Amino acid sequence: MAKGLTSNRVCTFLIDLSPTDLENPLAQFNHTFPVKESVWELVRTINISLKEDALKESVLAKVFETYWVQFESDFKKIIETTPETAVITKRKDNDIMLDVLSTVRMLDKRMRNLESTTGRQLYTIDNDSVTRDGFGSQEVRSFISSLIEQELPEQIIVELVGDKYKYPRSLIRREVQRAKKIREVNEDN
Fold first, then answer.
1. What is the DSSP string of 43-72?
2. What is the top-level taxon of the source organism (predicted)?
């Protein structure tokens, strides 16, 4: 669930489909497959999006393990008892390539717009800088450290910090790497 749920609130649950079978806009969202690892990532991502109302990861894992067997059994029964529907024709390679081209062009336009606006603003996370929303750098660093302590995936940390403090994602990634190195050094001492 690399994209997380901080901005997208749609996750597809693909049964007998692959991501290439989907057309835009559904193709742009997170995809979950009916296998334990994929469903676990969906559950974790939803939990993380709850922020301060989220369960601790250890509690969530126990609950997930408790109910997974029941879910898997019920899901298999549903699949077995559901009659086959009409066969969906596989998307043509040309259609997929046109979707990719459209997405790349859209991303290129967004990147150029972002570069032209952020080129005018200098962002740093140092001891005396302040974000556009008035948050001090120490607060940003503390927030990043608390997310690292929760052992959240880096991409989720980047999205949460970016949404809250409006820093560019590349700067947040560098700060996350810096904080992880500091944590490793402190753990070694």
1. HHHHHHHTGGGPPPHHHHHHHHHHHHHHHH
2. Bacteria
Spatial contact of 189 and 38, defined as CB atoms under 8 Å apart: no
CA-based nearest residue to 187, from 148, 143, 137? 148
**Calpha distance 115→107 (Å, rounded):** 12
Say how far apart CA 5 and CA 85 lie, in whole Å: 31
Report d(CA 47, CA 57) in Å as an integer.
9
CA separation for the pair 71, 76 (Å, rounded): 9
For the segment 50-99, what is each residue's pLDDT rounded down to a tens digit?
888 889 999 999 999 999 999 999 999 998 998 877 666 777 788 778 87
Q: Which residue's structure tokens are 């790497």?
A: 177
Give the C-alpha separation, 47 to 5, whole Å. Answer: 10
pLDDT tens, 174-186? 888 888 888 888 8
Q: How far is CA 42 from CA 49, 116, 141, 156, 161, in A?
A: 11, 35, 27, 12, 20
What span, in angstroms and rounded, lies between the C-alpha atoms of 162 and 37? 27
CA distance 35 to 152: 21
